[in-house]
Write a structure and sequence with these properties.
Length: 425
């Protein structure tokens, strides 16, 4: 497993030069100074950076004597950060704590013995009493818990420009019931004069769109079966999903390969597209643009996925050999606290992991997400590390990126089958 991490680092490494500076202006951390903590994330700009800033402000309030060292690496969904992190871990130079998606993404780090069991911290802080049972189950690996979530995100959300749909004669408050019905509406929007009614961005946003279509066409159980081998990647349901995905790609912006998620969301905010499938970190982008949920924009579960919550969580670990382990534990304490989760999630657009949060502290979209997480069927996100280990999701990402160029459905299915065979063998 350590060899796989080395291969990933070599294939993707972008170098530590991308690493951000500390909040105090110095680069990196001092291992001889116990009163600092180096926190490695991919929250380097926009609404993500705003969420981190709010969390750091709360941390500084709780632990004023500890200097926060910001080791953020830019790149949507953490693609660049994960490569830089792999290099650091392989060289025995871990940060004090690093961001990772809860779920299968952690499996490589666990197998390589690069992160520590945090079960005792959960007991000390009483986190098993305030995190929902479904979340604890998804965080637990062989009876141990290796990360602390700062939030819960939903990945099957369609962001809708209400004016664009109304101009096309479509009721924006009524979601299509299926992918086929959505494709029909996309054609109506295109016929109304919008060249590219569905905004997407770089490879991981395309993979997120595909996972949404897989959930819609396979259902929650069928989609979950993709990750344990009980659903074949060349089944009729997957073939239907790939065909639907191919049709959706006929409605997207041509410059998608060069856009990250925030630029794709901005197309919808500006009224140059009707829809964008994105996680609910986009909520902060819409609100920061001065838009109001239910007025200028609205959201639905992606057509065909109503009643399903496509789950991911940003979480933090305690690496083996962390230079400032005590300060890192203080960081984990802040992010899991009621005050820390409120400070972060009210800005980030996500919902708190804690069940004792007050919904009144959050906006209308977030209140709807809280209700959905409490009541809907939960599945794990592919694009955001919850469903598959890094190597498997990387293989799928490459296949999806290639499909964006050649639009060869048979080749995409063959690549998906090969990726699953490699991962499950």
């Amino acid at each position: 497993m350590r060899k796989r991490m080395s291969i990933l680092a070599g294939a993707l490494a972008v170098g530590l030069a991308l690493t951000g500076c500390s909040s105090g202006g110095s680069g990196g951390s001092d291992p001889d100074n116990p009163d600092q903590v180096e926190v490695f994330t991919w929250w380097a700009s926009g609404s993500e950076k705003a969420g981190l800033d709010a969390l750091v402000e709360e941390f500084n309030s709780q632990y004023p004597d500890i200097e926060f060292i910001n080791a953020a690496v830019a790149g949507g969904a953490g693609s660049n950060a994960k490569a830089a992190l792999a290099s650091r871990l392989e060289s025995g130079n871990p940060p004090d704590t690093f961001q990772a998606h809860a779920g299968a993404e952690l499996s490589d780090y666990i197998a390589a013995e690069q992160i520590q069991d945090l079960s005792n911290l959960y007991d000390e802080l009483g986190l098993k009493d305030v995190f929902p049972a479904d979340l604890i189950e998804r965080l637990t690996v062989d009876g141990k818990i290796y990360s602390v979530p700062s939030n819960i995100h939903r990945a099957n959300v369609t962001w809708v420009n209400t004016e664009v749909l109304e101009s096309a004669g479509i009721d924006p408050m009524k979601a299509p019931e299926s992918i086929d019905a959505w494709i029909s509406d996309l054609q109506k929007v295109k016929d109304s004069g919008v060249d590219a009614p569905l905004a997407i961005g770089t490879e991981w946003t395309q993979m997120q769109l595909l996972e949404n279509v897989l959930i819609a066409d396979l259902g929650a159980e069928g989609y979950a079966g993709l990750w344990d081998g009980s659903t074949a990647w060349d089944s009729d349901g997957v073939k239907t999903a790939v065909d639907h995905y191919d049709q959706l790609m006929n409605f997207v912006n041509q410059d998608y390969a060069g856009l990250d998620w925030d630029a794709a969301s901005q197309i919808v905010i500006d009224g140059n597209a009707a829809y964008n499938v994105m996680g609910d970190w986009a909520e902060a982008a819409f609100t920061q643009a001065g838009q109001t949920w239910g007025t200028e924009y609205t959201t639905w579960p992606t057509p065909g996925t109503d009643g399903v919550f496509d789950f991911l969580a940003d979480s933090f670990t305690l690496p083996v050999g962390a230079p400032h382990e005590e300060a890192a534990t203080d960081w984990l304490t802040t992010i899991s606290s009621a005050e820390g989760q409120k400070a972060f999630n009210t800005v980030k657009g996500s919902i708190p992991a804690r069940t004792d949060a007050d919904p009144a502290d959050y906006g209308e979209y977030q209140q709807s997400a809280m209700e959905s997480f409490a009541n809907d069927t939960i599945v794990s996100s592919l694009a955001h590390g919850a469903a598959a280990p890094i190597a498997w999701s990387s293989d799928i990402s490459s296949a999806v990126g290639k499909f964006g160029s050649d639009r060869d459905k048979d080749a995409l299915i063959q690549a998906l089958v090969a990726a699953a065979e490699s991962a499950l063998s």
